[in-house]
Amino acid sequence: MTLTAFEILRSSSLPILLEQEIERVILGGQFSPGDHLNEKELALRFGISRGPVREALRSLEASGLVDQVPNRGFFVRRLSASEASNVYDVRSVLFGLAGKLLAERITGDGIERLKQLMADMDAAVLADDFRLYVKLNFALHEFIVAASGNEVLAHQYLTLVKQLKLYRTHSLMLGEAMHASHCEHQVMVDAIAARDPAAAFEAHFKHVEAAKGRLTSATTNLV
Amino acid sequence: MTLTAFEILRSSSLPILLEQEIERVILGGQFSPGDHLNEKELALRFGISRGPVREALRSLEASGLVDQVPNRGFFVRRLSASEASNVYDVRSVLFGLAGKLLAERITGDGIERLKQLMADMDAAVLADDFRLYVKLNFALHEFIVAASGNEVLAHQYLTLVKQLKLYRTHSLMLGEAMHASHCEHQVMVDAIAARDPAAAFEAHFKHVEAAKGRLTSATTNLV
DNA sequence: CTGCGATAAATTGTTGACAATAAGCAATCT
DNA sequence: AGATTGCTTATTGTCAACAATTTATCGCAG
User: Which residue ranges run through the membrane (chains A, B) (predicted)?
Assistant: First the structure.
């Protein structure tokens, strides 16, 4: 226990820890898009000085979670509808690629893991447990992307997902959407289990595009 | 003229300018992958203090050009063969998406621009002017990605291209490779001009995959 | 001559202070 | 009343110094 804390402190410098913490606070909703991030306040909050805070904010800027305007400071990024649409389109091909790569390399254990996740989601859908479904959905996506074996892809994908969390209407997902999403997952997993890269790309790509469509229809005048 | 300088100074803070400058120096080859970046030295070089230098390095870290190891500093990123391969794979789908999007929205003027670039490259190939070809090649890629209208895509794509510049064997391209590349470009441009999104995706995707293949065959034991 | 250990130098990590810029506010003028 | 100017306050931008850590150097024993 004491070792872990030590290791964490050792492996990660202050700005890196800060970056994770500020990211957590932003994505957790404590700040809203457009909000100003006061450097002194953040420094005070974590009991450190402004230097490391600024470094952390620079990293967050590069990953698209905050914007900087000179002499005015850092602000939580505000994602317009068209920007969110752009993010979705990029995310679609990245996820398609993840599906394709995974179909080429998945092991028997991997297939088992996928089927287990699907079974859990089946249960969540039947129980109409939306909260659980969202959690499992994220786990499924994360597993696919991580198991694809391409770290560049995984990193980019997760960055985009974080950016999309800034787009508030995100959680407007209803029962029918959950059902549709689940069906698409089944097609994805089948293609992977069949080790069919082309079909996997198609299924994964379409899944994200469909998710974008569901979001679009939930809001008005997207794009 | 005076206005532009004013505007630049106004819109860009020191760390942002520094980031561009350090990036230029790294990609220009003044530093090699694995090289240590001395903060004091960099600060001295630009006549400023270490604070802004560290902020700039944090940004470069997030864009994958430098790595940081705690208490040891920043180093120019060293891209392994398998990492380069991963970058290529992601770049392939991004470029495919760019081609698809451009095919959906290109204007008559845009098609003219593409044909002009192709004509120039024709001349470069005939003259066996490798240097000119590389330059036009980059211009073509940049135009396609920028004209796709998806800024997220453009940003990610350019980031990956920069990362690949860290992979030295990059410039091992010979006469035959130039010819093959040129033929692939023709297929791409035809698909865009025909406003055929699916064909454009395919052509653009395969072009980058082929480029990866040419690089692979030039080196030994890639991946 | 080589390997080891202690000391010295260099480098990074962090801080607090100061300068420059922007935002808030009150008094004045039209 | 509304706009404008000037002042006050808050915030960001930058710096130089100090603490902590790592790297280099040198002496020394085997």
Answer: none
Give a yes or no: residue A174 inside a domain.
Answer: yes
Sign, CA dihedral B8-B11-B14-B20, equals negative
Please give the tally of structural domains in chain B.
2
Q: Which residues of A touch B206 (CB under 8 A)?
A: none
Rounded to whole angstroms, the Cα distance separating B215 from B171 reads: 9
Q: Which of A14-28, B2-16, B48-62, B166-180 has the highest mean pLDDT?
A: B48-62
Residue B109 and residue B159 in one domain = yes
Residue A223 domain-assigned (yes or no): no
pLDDT of residue A173: 65
Is the pLDDT reported for residue B217 higher than 80?
Answer: no
Joined together, the tokens standing for residue A213 give 């469509």
Domain limits at B6? 2-76
pLDDT at B137: 96
Q: Classify residue B208: in a domain, yes or no.
A: yes
Record the pTM: 0.91
Which residues from chain A sit within 8 angstroms of residue B56, using beta carbons? Answer: 58
First-last CA distance in chain B: 49
B44 interfaces chain A, CB cutoff of 8 Å: no
Give the model confidence (pLDDT) of B134-147 as tens digits. Answer: 999 999 999 999 99
Residue B223 domain-assigned (yes or no): no
> Which of A13, A51, A96 minimises the CB distance to B70?
A13
CA nearest to A150 within chain B: B86
As a whole number, mean pLDDT of residues B163-175 equals: 76
**Do B92 and B164 share a domain, yes or no?**
yes
CB of B49 within 8 Å of any CB in chain A? no
Q: Residue B49 to residues A146, B15, B56: CA-CA distances in angstroms?
A: 40, 11, 12
Last residue of a domain, one of A20, A52, A76: A76
Q: Choose among B59, B63, B86: nearest Cβ to A152.
A: B86
* Each residue's pLDDT tens digit, A70-129: 999 999 999 999 999 999 999 999 999 999 999 999 999 999 999 999 999 999 999 999
Q: Are A148 and A44 members of one domain?
A: no
Residues B65 and B170 in one domain: no
